[in-house]
């Protein structure tokens, strides 16, 4: 068994961004926190499926150029090849979890 406490793991940008809780051997699993107006960063995966669940706040997914509003309680599954970004609303922060599978840490391409 692997056990982790979220508070012990670092965010990519200090107090916000992506935070991995588990990396491999079969999936990546983590937390994303975006401050008001911040973006995750547009990207896509050639082989990895990525799933998000929004826990708090509101914002939008931009998937292949289409904007889709999201709020707490929204789930989104992205197929390999779908270009995507997650953007917090200008008025609210956003907090969610993500799962990427299979575990292929180099399968991320910037848009």
Task: Characterise this structure.
By secondary structure, the chain is mostly beta strands. It has a domain at 36-104: Jelly Rolls. It is 0% helix and 50% strand. It has strands spanning 17-23, 28-34, 43-44, 49-63, 66-71, 75-78, 84-88, 94-101, 109-110. The strands form two sheets. Strands 1, 2, 4, 5, 6, 7 and 8 form a seven-stranded antiparallel beta sheet that branches. It has a two-stranded antiparallel ribbon with strand order 3-9. A hairpin with a 2-residue loop joins β4 and β5. The radius of gyration is 13 Å and the shape is globular. It starts with 16 loop residues before the first strand and ends with a strand.
Can you count the beta strands? 9
Instruction: Please tell me the overall pLDDT.
Output: 97
CATH fold descriptor of the domain at 36-104: Jelly Rolls
Shape: globular
Percentage of residues in helical conformation: under 10%
| Fourth CATH level, the homologous superfamily of the domain at 36-104 | Jelly Rolls
**Which structural class do you get from the secondary structure elements?**
mainly beta
What would you report as the Rg, rounded to the nearest angstrom?
A: 13 Å
SSE string: EEEEEEEEE
Give a nutshell description of this structure.
By secondary structure, the chain is mostly beta strands. It contains no helices and 9 strands. The strands form 2 sheets. Strands 1, 2, 4, 5, 6, 7 and 8 form a 7-stranded antiparallel β-sheet that branches. Strands 3-9 form a two-stranded antiparallel ribbon.
